[in-house]
User: Fold this.
Amino acid sequence: MGADVSRETAVPEVWEPVTKLTVNGRPSVLSLDTRVTLLDALRDHLGLVGTKKGCDQGACGACTVHVNGKRVLSCLTLAAQCEGHAVTTIEGLARPGKTHPMQEAFVARDGFQCGFCTPGQIMSAVSLIDEGRAGTDDEIREFMSGNLCRCGAYPNMVAAIREVASTGSGDAAV
Assistant:
């Protein structure tokens, strides 16, 4: 009864999905589960913590970034969806040695208080101008309504956006 049964144990092939992202002009190759959001890839894998995790449900706008120049909620976007696309975060908005005009206007007009929502607000504001939707204060408020501020700095944000829109310096490529 002591039959010697030799079993060959097969080792399962371990496969990790690879996601290639270009963030703020820098290419990155990440081993990510296909379910990882762009927000988590930015914060947890690339160390870009300027983009904030607010509600994690697409309701607050704190996680707003640009993908190919268009604003997206990074908490609702899979990192894998961004392969082959240019992602810009708040860290990549300014140029070396020069802040973006929207960042300057938010500081000058006190468009933030606690600052938590500020990166998402600025990213949306830049897109708002690029989209040509900053004609009036009402229009600015309407198209910024997806970005929430618990501190209530809205009037100052509108003033900052209006200032940049009036000078024509809100282009994300500045």
